[in-house]
Amino acid sequence: ATMVSKQSNLKIPFVNSWMKTMEAITFDRSNMRDAVRMIRDVVAKLKEGKNVVIFPEGTRSKKMEMGDFKPGSFKPALTAKCTVVPITLVNTFATDVKGKTDNRVKIIFSDPIRYDEFKDMTTTELCEKVKGIIQENLDRGL
Question: How far is CA 17 from CA 43, 104, 121, in A?
């Protein structure tokens, strides 16, 4: 498995080694050409049968609410005709909170969404479907 990440994460000590080991696909979010290259690279990995983790918010939320999802993050799944597994991370914002807090993170793996179930959807529709599933998990998981 690999993941998609902003290129600047390669500047973080230890994280850069970990990302290189897992062959993370990085890109410059301010460069449209690089974003297109990233999509091609992700599609290639998916067609090889590899799992790719994509964070559709594009960044980690600093509070309990989800940020906006980027519909383009679902383009590789549509192009590669692969299954999407929504993963909900509950309470990740609390790891940044100083002082006494419940820093336990909960991970919820939802049922896979097979390509046949979303093949006629736009990236925006698929994005909204996945966001709805994750929001339901957050509502139940908090």
Answer: 23, 25, 37
